[in-house]
Amino acid sequence: MNFDTKAIHAGQEPDSLTGAATVPIYQTSTFVQQEQDSGYVYSRIANPTRTALETCLAALEEAEAGFAFASGMAAEDAVMRLLNPGDHVVMGVDAYGGTRRLFDRVLTRWGLTFTSVDTSSTEGVEAGLRPETKMIWLESPTNPGLQIADIAALSELGHAQEALVVVDNTFATPYLQRPITLGADMVVHSMTKYLGGHSDVLAGAVCVKDLAIAKDLGFIQRTVGAVAGPFDSWLVLRGIKTLGIRMRRHCENAGAVAEFLAAQPNVGNVWYPGFPSHPGHEVAKRQMDGFGGMVLFEAASAEEARRIISSTKLFFLAESLGGVESLIGHPASMSHASVAGTPYSVSEKVIRLSVGIEDPADLIEDLRSAISG
Description:
The protein is α/β, with parallel strands linked by helices. The chain folds into 2 domains: about 5-240, Type I PLP-dependent aspartate aminotransferase-like (Major domain) (Aspartate Aminotransferase, domain 2), CATH 3.40.640.10; about 245-370, Aspartate Aminotransferase, domain 1, CATH 3.90.1150.10. The chain contains 14 helices and 12 strands. The chain has helices at about 5-10, 50-60, 70-80, 95-105, 120-130, 150-160, 175, 180, 210-225, 230-240, 245-260, 280-285, 300-310, 360-370, and strands at about 65-70, 90, 115, 135-140, 165-170, 185-190, 205-210, 270, 295-300, 315, 325-330, 350-355. The strands form 2 sheets. It has a 7-stranded mixed β-sheet, sandwiched between helices. It has a 5-stranded mixed β-sheet with strand order 8-9-12-11-10. Strand 4 (about 135-140), helix 6 (about 150-160) and strand 5 form a beta-alpha-beta unit. Helix 1 (about 5-10) packs antiparallel against helix 2 and helix 2 (about 50-60) packs parallel to helix 10. It is globular, with a radius of gyration of 21 Å.
């Protein structure tokens, strides 16, 4: 099946009892046991609505298994529990602030070590490897800098080291990029973003290539218990049905907005992987089916950046991304505030846009008005 068909049908057969065309919300904590084992005992261990979502996720990411969690951070934490004290992880200098907070402030206390490198450089990643390196953690595109990692090349590099390669695919989604097909071992998502797509759910996911790893991760999921609830699973399933249609519009609108910004005399750098001038453009063109809905640009000053983000009407000033509505953010004081004053801080002049699916002419006019003052 092609992507849009899988998004609607994978794991989502009509209900065997009633014929319901939409997967029911099995809002129950426990299941009455019968002579014939249904496979469901307790909803922390498994729930039919969550199973439908996990089956769909695995199909979309071309993985062997999928796991749904209560948030993207819960998904990341579960992956890191596959490692042991003393293990070393190579990660990107440009990484989501919440990921770095988890790694630096929580996981280092449990004996893991981390080295930050430029993951857009295969040589840079190779230089960060140690004999005890057990994982390479990638974002592509990165948050917020929109850097591109060569997933296929870095997967080969990691496997030669006998290290797992994990890709946070939140920005790209499986519609635009399938890291497991490119060689990665695991894919992580904040399903709160594009997969849910409507800014009304908090959820995370991990998709796994190897069944042995899937067995270990499944044990962690049901033992630690940070699982996605049935209603949250249902909301994400609903969002995934229109993922392909939405991502096509996100990409189209983001490209138009990026072109507009690049032509403005009072705007500095504009970062968008769809620009031929973007350092990662050729890699993105090779491994992605589109360039995504995120755009980054630079105001003339930190003060000007703050004025712009408070002046838009259609671009809501808010955390998060990937919803149908457009959002504007200031990474230095919002998503990456926890790394302020460190080598990983983001310039206060930088503005991040999550370009929604509204009419692009209206979005451009909103930005034009905000930038011109």
